[in-house]
Design a protein that fits this description.
Helices cover about 60% and strands about 0% of the residues. By secondary structure, it is mainly α.
């Protein structure tokens, strides 16, 4: 006689999802763009709190955002737009954060999940 406990398939719990709908995905992806990268790490902190990603990834994004914003300020302290590198850093942070936010629920990516 077969035991239902031995032959039963193992049910792995589903990973929590970051986005409940396509509209939520679009709104969360726009956060780094609309805030001009001042809130680039916010979607990752929310994802870490929800359990979608591991906390170390959110901490890495917060640290990277602080470093980029400090570098952009140091490279252009008076705000007279003499250094194009500061703007480039902010644009790269915006694009990177928006792309990674859109990929938070992608099942093919396993880094930090």
């Amino acid at each position: 006689m077969a035991s239902p406990y031995i032959n039963a398939p193992l049910n792995t719990p589903a990973r929590p999802r970051m986005f409940g709908s396509t509209l939520a995905k679009v709104v969360w992806t726009l956060v780094p763009l609309v805030t001009i990268s001042l809130a680039a790490a916010v979607p990752f902190v929310v994802a870490a709190v929800k359990g979608v990603i591991k906390p170390w990834l959110a901490i890495a994004y917060v640290a990277a955002e602080v470093v980029v914003l400090v570098l952009a300020t140091v490279l252009d302290p008076q705000g007279d737009a003499t250094s194009p590198v500061a703007g480039l850093l902010l644009i790269l942070l915006m694009i990177t954060a928006a792309t990674h936010t859109a990929l938070l629920d992608n099942d093919k990516i396993n880094v930090g999940k």
